[in-house]
Amino acid sequence: MDFKVYVRHVRIGRNKIARLLPFVKGQYVQRALANLRTLPQKSSHTLSKAIKSGMANALFTNRNLNPDTLWVKEARVDMGTRLKRSQPMPRGSAGSITKMYSHVSLTLTSDLKPEKIRKKKGMGIIAAPVKEAAASAKPTSPEKTAVPVKQAAPKTAKKE
């Protein structure tokens, strides 16, 4: 079951919150809170409050839910309103100041978390862990595994 959390009109710019989302996306809730607790940014406090609010909503909605099974399925930050102010500048001109707001939306779910699929670097195939691949490989004779060697072209004598 999915539980959605919206935190609107946060007085922090969108990019400042968005750079912390990789520490939250796809993590179990307790792990995400531990990650955010170690970060010094102001937006980590805002994200942790949103996650705690989502946990409380999930537990209030479903009393039988185990909070250890909740994980962050989706995390998104959208641009909010802007407050435009002006500041006096030299020679009678005015400089503009834009105060950014943002909206945070999280989706917490209690469904089973999918496992990550590891891919070989540069290849488009799925790589099995080394131990399992070695165990599942059948022993073959060295004749079948030998790679054919290219024959070098015969050298010709140089004409003088």
Keywords:
Ribosomal Protein L22, Chain A, flat, three-stranded antiparallel β-sheet, alpha+beta, 160 residues, single chain, 28% helix, 5 helices
Structural write-up:
- With 160 residues, the protein is an alpha+beta fold.
- The chain is 28% helix and 27% strand.
- The chain has helices spanning 14-18, 29-37, 42-61, 130-136, 142-145; strands at residues 2-10, 71-88, 94-109.
- A 3-stranded antiparallel β-sheet has the order 1-3-2.
- The termini are far apart.
- Mean pLDDT is 84; it is low at 125-130.
| Total E-strand runs | 3
Helix and strand element order: EHHHEEHH
Compute the separation of the termini in Å: 85 Å
Separate helix tally: 5
Task: Show the helix and strand layout.
Blueprint: E1 2-10, H1 14-18, H2 29-37, H3 42-61, E2 71-88, E3 94-109, H4 130-136, H5 142-145
Antiparallel strand pairs: 1-3, 2-3
Helix pairs in contact: 2-3
Task: Summarize this entry quickly.
This protein has a domain of 108 residues: Ribosomal Protein L22, Chain A (Alpha-Beta Complex). 28% of the residues lie in helices and 27% in strands. It contains 5 helices and 3 strands.
